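User: My instructor asked us to take a sequence, write out its structure as tokens, and then describe one feature of it. I'm not sure where to start. Here is the sequence I was given:
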Amino acid sequence: MTNSFFSDYKKEIFLFAGLFLIALSVISTMGSAFGIRMLVEASCYAILALGLTIQWGYAGLFNAGVLGFVAMGGFMTMLVSYPTNPEFWDSDLPGQLGGVFFKLVVGIGLIVASVQLHRLNIPKKIRVPITVITSAVVYLVVVSSLNPVADAIESEAGFIGGLGLPVWMGWAMGGVVAGVIAYFIGHICLGLRSDYLAIATLGIAEIIKAFLKNADWLTRGTLTVSPLPWPVPQPIDVGFVAARAAYLSVTALLIAIIFYLLTKAYRAPWGRMMRAIRDNELSSAAMGKNVNGRRLEVFVLGSVLMGIGGAALTSFNGIFDPSGYIPLNHTFLVWVMVILGGAGNNLGTIFGAVFVYIIWTMSEPVALYIFDVIRNLGEAWFDWEAPSDLDSRALQARVFVIGLTITLVLRFAPKGVIPERIAQHS
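Assistant: Let's start with the prediction itself. The structure tokens for your sequence are:
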């Protein structure tokens, strides 16, 4: 049985062994603190990539707004786990803010009621204007009520602060809220063509980022919120290496649990149904499968994982900065990880996440070293004076290296270095 396992997974074993040696070389060269920090961040990205691989690899759903779910996960862990702000809670501001949210809830109820007017046999030409007018009135009432309260919070308390709850609750809430947002996006867009989902997720991601960036009363906007608590002892208590190693053990355990559950689901009838819908939607629908319902399930599940991964990454960084969520880092890079590792293969996705993040992290120091060699050789041999901004260009090398990597993968391994394994039945 051991020989059979080795022969079946020989490629994966060699790839992960090589990845392990690369990680060890980085730790020995750059130091334990740097190397473990890189691995923690890579493990957080692995959770994001697993969320994307079940959306794209399992169901063929193109999510162009990973950033939005990552940012929402980070926001929720800040809101839930950051210490409370006494200046806010000891004033009458919570009551005023609660009144605004009460109006919002009533307004949402009125909008939902206007949408359900078809049950009273009211014609569509009447229902639509009622819904539009109701939505506009609710928006104006809520905004006019919120603005003075928000100004008062910013002037008197700075921002509302957090709830001071355990970090794991913040991670869980990050996944839940990301899943709720995904549900509404998917409920509207999954019945349409796939490009509508890409456009919707991209737009929603930018809306979430803009809201978090400008809601100073809620997130402090560009002023950022820090330091965020960890689920393990902080570096100030046990040192950088021990604290980061403990954090890595938490994220590694989380990845192991997610990997086990996703693998069981992939091999179950649910997984076979998702692959059937992905490969032939019309045939699946003809067999009585609820195509849109199953796609909505996998879209929500993937977004939940993105929210959890975003929460873990934000907690580790120790700072919530809405401006720090950018498409290159939190959407494009995750897609590169999934494509390189192998969409639909959970093991390949984890490999791709760690490998790509090592490349992403080490590109700058390696480029700096190469630039130093070129500068020294040029000065010694040709009396060449290097540009003053040569070192600053090293940061751009990571984009070039990632672009080159994904180009080579698409050319020589279009299905990823560890492609999806599909069982063949005789």
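For the description part of your assignment, you could build on this observation: The CA atoms of residues 318 and 383 lie 46 Å apart. Try explaining in your own words what that tells you about the chain.
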